[in-house]
């Protein structure tokens, strides 16, 4: 019997700990190093399905906090009471959907990834479109001292996205979490404090 190449240490750990995906450990590492999510905070999680980041952030913000997840796919698992879900395509959604949160979010997370085609250039460009959409939402909805976390695929256009991000935030960090698969070109851009 062939072993599942994706069923690695982190996938098994996620199952054991009740998380819906191994990607939770990427956010956990980002949180340990950069404290992007605060107790009592409001978090926007873009590309939230299957829901592991929602599970993690809902624990960090606690009962007085709120986590709003957005994804093109339906959320198939029940979540804690401090989580709300909006099914929408970030590239075409009416931003008015988020206007009830006009006083802003303390953290905006984006773990969005495009449907991959197998063509590295095309996939990188699709990823960048999602990253730009997340960055635009941060300009509208992120509080001045808030944190922005965005998964980006390194390749054509990455440096340009990084430069735009540096103009938007006082501090930029790049992090490739330990549990990222070796073949992956992904890296996380973390922006802290919006430039006035």
- Share of helical residues: 25-40%
Question: What is the number of helical segments per DSSP (H or I, 4+ residues)?
Answer: 5
Distance between the termini: 58 Å
CATH class division: Alpha Beta
**CATH fold naming:** Rossmann fold
In CATH terms, the superfamily is: Vaccinia Virus protein VP39
Biggest beta sheet summary: 7 strands, mixed
| Average pLDDT taken over every residue | 91
CATH architecture: 3-Layer(aba) Sandwich
Kindly report the spatial arrangement of strands forming the biggest sheet: 3-2-1-4-5-7-6
Question: Which regions have little confidence, pLDDT < 50, spanning 5+ residues?
Answer: none
Order of helix and strand elements from N to C terminus = HHEHEEEHEHEE
Q: What does the secondary structure layout of this molecule look like, with pairings?
A:
Blueprint lengths: L8 H9 L6 H11 L7 E5 L5 H10 L4 E6 L11 E5 L17 E6 L9 H22 E12 L4 H11 E7 L10 E9 L2
Parallel strand pairs: 1-2, 1-4, 2-3, 4-5
Antiparallel strand pairs: 5-7, 6-7
Provide a brief overview of the structure:
This protein has 196 residues and is an alpha/beta fold. The protein contains five helices and seven strands; from the N terminus they run ααβαβββαβαββ.
What attributes does this structure have?
196 residues; alpha/beta; Rossmann fold; 32% helix; globular
Describe this structure in words.
This protein has a single domain, classed as Rossmann fold, CATH 3.40.50. The protein has a seven-stranded mixed sheet with strand order 3-2-1-4-5-7-6, with helices on both faces. It is 32% helix and 26% strand. The longest helix is centred in the middle third of the chain and has 22 residues, at 120-141. The mean pLDDT is 91. By secondary structure, the chain is of the alpha/beta class.
């Amino acid at each position: 019997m062939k072993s599942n190449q994706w069923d690695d240490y982190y996938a098994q750990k996620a199952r054991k700990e009740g998380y819906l995906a191994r990607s939770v450990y990427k956010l956990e590492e980002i949180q340990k190093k950069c404290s992007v999510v605060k107790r009592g905070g409001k978090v926007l999680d873009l590309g939230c399905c299957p829901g592991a980041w929602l599970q993690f952030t809902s624990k960090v913000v606690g009962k007085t906090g709120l986590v709003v997840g957005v994804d093109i796919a339906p959320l198939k698992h029940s979540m804690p009471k401090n989580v709300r879900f909006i099914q929408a395509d970030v590239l075409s959604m009416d931003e008015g959907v988020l206007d009830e949160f006009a006083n802003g979010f303390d953290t905006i997370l984006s773990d969005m990834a495009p449907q991959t085609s197998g063509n590295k250039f095309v996939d990188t460009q699709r990823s960048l479109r999602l990253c730009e959409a997340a960055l635009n939402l941060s300009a509208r909805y992120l509080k001045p001292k808030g944190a922005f976390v965005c998964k980006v695929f390194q390749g054509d256009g990455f440096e340009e996205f990084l430069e735009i991000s540096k103009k938007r935030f006082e501090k930029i960090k790049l992090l490739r979490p330990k549990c990222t698969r070796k073949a992956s070109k992904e890296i996380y851009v973390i922006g802290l404090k919006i430039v006035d």
